[in-house]
């Protein structure tokens, strides 16, 4: 666990974490039994019992850190992920130690001491982490324990890899140079030709080789990989398909066969069911709460204009599946008889008097709660579009169809940021794709809150 990558990082960080846990445990003992934040009424325990418990805590910490991969460092691990791993490890440690004290009947432990330790441990751990990282960065700047990396290729992708690796120099990555097929790019440090890879690896004491060659260099790539087959260096192949990777791209294992995912929906497994439960529960509650208002709107629509109360229109949703989306009718029955399918414009003459109010306040969208309960829509997601417009936009707007990787919503990230109505399709797609790439249940709740906070009235709602 400690030796896979970044040996210096893992060793220093583990030592820092261990010192932080020991300090937090001793501080908790001091506050409980020396300072006596609450007076001791049952007598003072033997200090050796709590001293031995430290070894149990550190053992549990090692087990929990293996589960959370806390000391497994590679390029791409950002501070947020590290905080999540550290928090997860601490939570498991406290939980398992609490179980240990509960089932170990030979000795009773102060529950208040454990609570104080739970409060102090995060403070001590995060403070120690900041101190250790500052020390590691200073040592890395002096060239200690660096993994020397050679990149085979001088393509834009190869230079992009080099730039990314250099940003993670504090993890011990040092790009020594590149290999090229013919002449290297100007400004790129070229150490030799592809056929000289063995000599360059030995001369420069290389630890890792990243292969980033263009698709038309298959033969050269095979020759390079064959030359490194009996080498001790780590070899990593980066296929030149970055431009084709879209939403939630990654690699999955198909019974030992690596499969590259170019795009996929984030709603897989547990994520999908979480969103379904939230949609059905909140959708049903909203329908019950807004039922009287919807009945009142229905009566006014029927009273003020000729035609049905509800208007349904074919839209395209998840995976391109078409469905009928419901709205309160806000226009004349024959609104598109002459014009055909067109965008609604500001001061559109096809609207009824009450319909203009409904569209301005977005109250015409309330019947889409029925679409949510039918499973055709979600409370939050990209707004569904009419198939006739989808056919137009998919030909002119890059990545337009990727928005159909998520179930359509009544409200969305683009809408709460003002991109609705007759506004830029490109900006709307940009916000929709940002939502899909960064989806979480918390993000949905944030959008629902912003929808209520900013109000349903918008200058682009017409």
3D architecture notes:
This protein is an alpha/beta fold and 462 residues long. The protein has 3 domains: 7-141, no CATH class; 147-244, NAD(P)-binding Rossmann-like Domain (Rossmann fold), CATH 3.40.50.720; 270-453, no CATH class. The chain has 14 helices and 11 strands. The strands form 4 sheets. It has a 5-stranded parallel sheet with strand order 3-2-1-4-5, with helices on both faces. The chain has a two-stranded antiparallel ribbon with strand order 6-7. It has a two-stranded antiparallel ribbon with strand order 8-9. A hairpin with a 5-residue loop joins strand 8 (310-316) and strand 9 (322-328). The two termini are 59 Å apart. The relative contact order is 0.07. Residues 1-5 have low confidence and may be disordered.
Topology readout:
Layout: H1 7-35, H2 47-68, H3 79-103, H4 111-141, E1 147-152, H5 156-167, E2 173-180, E3 190-193, H6 197-204, E4 208-211, H7 218-227, E5 234-237, E6 250-254, E7 257-261, H8 270-304, E8 310-316, E9 322-328, H9 353-361, H10 368-373, E10 378-380, H11 387-396, E11 409-411, H12 413-416, H13 425-437, H14 441-453
Parallel strand pairs: 1-2, 1-4, 2-3, 4-5, 10-11
Antiparallel strand pairs: 6-7, 8-9
């Amino acid at each position: 666990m400690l030796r896979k990558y970044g040996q210096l990082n893992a060793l220093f960080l583990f030592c820092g974490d261990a010192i932080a846990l020991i300090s937090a445990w001793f501080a908790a003992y001091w506050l409980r039994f020396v300072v006596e934040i609450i007076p001791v009424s049952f007598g003072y325990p033997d200090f050796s019992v709590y001293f031995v418990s430290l070894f149990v805590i550190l053992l549990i910490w090692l087990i929990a850190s293996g589960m959370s991969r806390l000391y497994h460092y590679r390029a791409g691990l950002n501070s947020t992920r590290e905080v999540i791993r550290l928090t997860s490890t601490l939570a498991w440690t406290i939980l398992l130690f609490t179980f240990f004290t509960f089932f170990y009947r030979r000795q009773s432990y102060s529950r208040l001491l454990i609570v104080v330790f739970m409060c102090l441990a995060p403070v001590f751990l995060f403070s120690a982490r900041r101190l250790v990282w500052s020390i590691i960065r200073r040592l890395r700047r002096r060239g200690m324990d660096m993994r020397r990396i050679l990149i085979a290729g001088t393509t834009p992708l190869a230079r992009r890899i080099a730039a990314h690796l250099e940003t993670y120099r504090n993890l011990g990555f040092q790009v020594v140079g590149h290999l090229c097929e013919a002449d290297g790019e100007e400004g790129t440090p070229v150490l030799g030709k592809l056929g000289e890879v063995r000599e360059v690896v030995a001369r420069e004491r290389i630890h890792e080789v990243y292969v980033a060659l263009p698709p038309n260099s298959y033969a050269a790539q095979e020759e390079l990989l064959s030359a490194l087959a009996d080498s001790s260096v780590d070899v990593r192949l980066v296929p030149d398909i970055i431009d084709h990777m879209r939403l939630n791209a990654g690699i999955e294992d198909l019974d030992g066969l690596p499969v590259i995912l170019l795009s996929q929906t984030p709603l897989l497994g547990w994520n999908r069911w979480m969103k379904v439960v939230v949609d059905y529960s909140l959708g049903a509650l909203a329908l019950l709460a807004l039922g009287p208002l919807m009945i009142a709107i229905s009566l006014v629509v029927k009273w003020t204009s000729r035609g049905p109360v509800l208007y349904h229109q074919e839209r395209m949703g998840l995976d391109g599946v078409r469905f009928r989306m419901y709205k309160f009718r806000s226009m004349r029955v024959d609104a598109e008889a002459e014009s055909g399918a067109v965008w609604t414009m500001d001061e559109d003459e096809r609207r009824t008097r009450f319909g203009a109010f409904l569209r301005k306040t977005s109250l015409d969208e309330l019947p889409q709660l029925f679409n949510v309960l039918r499973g055709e829509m979600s409370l939050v997601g990209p707004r569904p579009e009419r198939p006739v417009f989808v056919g137009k936009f998919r030909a002119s707007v890059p990545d337009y169809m990727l928005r159909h990787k998520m179930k359509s919503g009544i409200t969305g990230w683009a809408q709460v940021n003002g991109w609705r109505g007759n506004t830029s399709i490109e900006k709307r797609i940009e916000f929709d794709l940002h939502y899909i790439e960064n989806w979480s249940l918390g993000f949905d709740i944030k959008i629902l809150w912003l929808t209520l906070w900013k109000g349903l009235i918008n200058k682009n709602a017409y």
